[in-house]
Structure formats: C-alpha cells, structure tokens
Specification:
The protein has a domain at 51-181: Rossmann fold (3-Layer(aba) Sandwich). The protein is globular, with a radius of gyration of 16 Å. 35% of the residues lie in helices and 18% in strands. By secondary structure, it is of the alpha/beta class. Strand 2, helix 2 (73-85) and strand 3 form a beta-alpha-beta unit. The protein starts with 5 loop residues before the first helix and ends in a 9-residue tail after the last helix.
Length: 190
C-alpha cells in the first residue's frame, strides 16, 4: 500500500493491522504530509482497490488517464487540472496498491482513455508502472508513458529538490505529458 496523504495512511495502517492472510507493507515517503483533514473514524480499505480521484465532468471517453501511486496522487491531480484547462479530458486514479493491482479499475481506465500515464516516486524498472505495463500487455492494451525515477544512483536532497530533479513536480509532469501526447505512441520514458 502507498498512501496519497496522511489521512489515507491512517486507514492503511488500520487495514494492515487487521489483515490476516499474510504479510503486508505500507510505503510512505519521508517529509511532511499535505495537511489534509483527518477522518474522525478509521476505516478498513479493501485490499487491491484503487479509487478515481479526479475526472473531467460529463465525459465517458477521456484523452488521458493518469494512474498515480502514493504521494504522486496530488501532483497528478494538479497536472490533470492544468491539462483540463488546456482542453483535455482527464481522469486520475489513486492506485493505492502496487500488489495486488486493481486490475478492473486499471483496465476500465485503459478502455475509456486514449492515452495512459503512470506516475510514481520510485525507480521505474520493476516498479509500479512496470506492473501496470505487464497487466495491460497481458490484455493487449495500449502503451503507457511511465514517469518516475530512473535506475541510477539518486543523490541526497529534500523531497522537493529530488522531485524537481527527476521531473516529478506538477509543472514538469505536465510538460512531459504535453511533449509526449503529440506522439502517436507513448514509449517507456524517464
């Protein structure tokens, strides 16, 4: 599990404490939370179920689907708002789980979106985006633009500095998507 914010982290810890079918892990970044309002009651999340956190109104077909995990969900939402203002119809998924993936939600998103992007604050090789690619490949779906950290030594720095360095700020994510969206096929990318 990878929480999008401190409120979801609380629910994931409760879910992990109640889970009895094997090991479970929660991956959360260093640094501070977003300062979101905390729910008064904790809830148990359904293992392997993501959620739609943003979508252009009154649309059944989208130009772009963004599938984000962990602390990249809010930058994905900001990116979607910018792209929507530029005239694109966008949908954002908070995947929540790397394993098991919410296959149903991801495949439905692939069916309703012309192009797909995954965003993770993790190494791309063997990461979340790779798992999404494998799922989509097994279902002969479309290619995906993966945004994350390249497989290289990552220097030290604050979370904000590293996100800027690796292009994981809303502005740089938007720029990368706009550069790629003009191409007929997305390819795996840094």
């Amino acid at each position: 599990m990878a929480p999008k914010d401190e409120n979801e982290l609380r629910h994931m810890v409760k879910t992990g404490l109640e889970y009895r079918k094997g090991p479970i892990s929660v991956r959360f970044p260093r640094g501070e939370g977003y300062g979101v309002k905390l729910d008064s009651e904790l809830k148990t999340l359904t293992i392997g179920k993501g959620e739609i956190v943003f979508q252009s109104a009154d649309v059944t077909k989208f130009d772009l689907g963004i599938i984000a995990i962990g602390n990249m969900v809010y930058p994905a939402i900001e990116t979607a708002k910018t792209l929507q203002a530029a005239g694109l119809k966008v949908k954002v998924i908070n995947a929540r789980f790397v394993k098991p993936l919410d296959e149903k939600l991801i495949l439905e998103t692939a069916d309703t979106c012309e192009k797909l992007v995954t965003i993770e604050e993790n190494v791309l090789q063997g990461g979340f985006g790779s798992a999404v690619l494998e799922l989509l490949n097994d279902h002969e779906s479309k290619p995906v633009l993966r945004l994350g950290i390249p497989d290289e030594f990552v220097t030290h720095g604050s979370q904000a500095e590293l996100q800027d360095l690796y292009g994981l700020t809303p502005e740089k994510i938007t720029q990368k998507i706009l550069e790629k969206i003009k191409q007929p096929v997305f390819s795996a990318s840094k």
